[in-house]
Amino acid sequence: xxxxxxxxxxxxxxxxxxxxxxxxxxSDKPEFVAIYGRRRVGKTYLVKELFQDxxxxxxxGLSPYDKERRISMRDQLEAQFVARIGFRAGxx
Length: 92
Description:
mainly alpha; two-stranded antiparallel sheet; 4 helices
């Protein structure tokens, strides 16, 4: 919770959004949050700053393919799944 307060003082004009994201993060149930809006207004920055040490995986953008690392969204998700659960799809 302290992290949210720190970010709140660092990011101007996003109090409502930060409070909403904090509420979702503190929830006792799984939450899916889609953040959308115009380009270049700080959506990714807000999420990265707010959840800096709390994220396991996130996807930003429209493409399901990471051209830099030549890896698909499916491969990224599978890598996270393998890291957490310990087996690949099709191993059962």
